[in-house]
């Protein structure tokens, strides 16, 4: 049962995910963590933008060209940014740490921050 740690809004949520092989976006939605994911994983938005902890970034599969193209549109892009719908949690990633960007391309979520 791999674990993922979400850091956002000055807090940390640790989730032990029973179903292996879910995406970070799916796990966030199951656990009511505010990641939009407007296109539901079809690589047509960047509202599932997450920032992967530096220690973990190179342990992930490489992003596809399509993911990189969508990341180019993400607000607050960092060197360890990924799309949450493209990162699958497996046992190999047990303990993965991700944070949510302070700002993203989702007006609804940005309004909640102010
Ligand atoms: Fe749209 Fe991930 S949910 S690209």
In short:
This protein is an alpha+beta fold and 114 residues long.
What is the name of the CATH class? Alpha Beta
Structural class: alpha+beta
Helix content: 10-25%
Q: Major β-sheet, in short?
A: 5 strands, mixed
Task: Give the DSSP E fraction (strand runs of 2 or more residues).
Answer: 15-25%
How does this structure look, described?
- By secondary structure, this protein is an alpha+beta fold.
- The protein has a single domain, classed as Roll (Ubiquitin-like (UB roll)).
- It has 4 helices and 5 strands.
- It has helices spanning 24-30, 54-57, 65-71, 107-113; strands spanning 3-8, 11-16, 49-52, 81-83, 96-99.
- It has a 5-stranded mixed beta sheet.
- Strand 1 and strand 2 form a beta hairpin.
- The structure holds FE2/S2 (inorganic) cluster (FES).
- FE2/S2 (inorganic) cluster binds at residues 25, 37-41, 43-48, 70, 83, 85.
- FE2/S2 (inorganic) cluster (FES) is lined by residues 25, 37-41, 43-48, 70, 83, 85.
Explain the layout of strands and helices.
Blueprint (H helix, E strand, L loop, with lengths): L2 E6 L2 E6 L7 H7 L18 E4 L1 H4 L7 H7 L9 E3 L12 E4 L7 H7 L1
Parallel strand pairs: 1-5
Antiparallel strand pairs: 1-2, 3-4, 3-5
The chain binds FE2/S2 (inorganic) cluster (FES).
The site of FE2/S2 (inorganic) cluster has 15 residues, from loops.
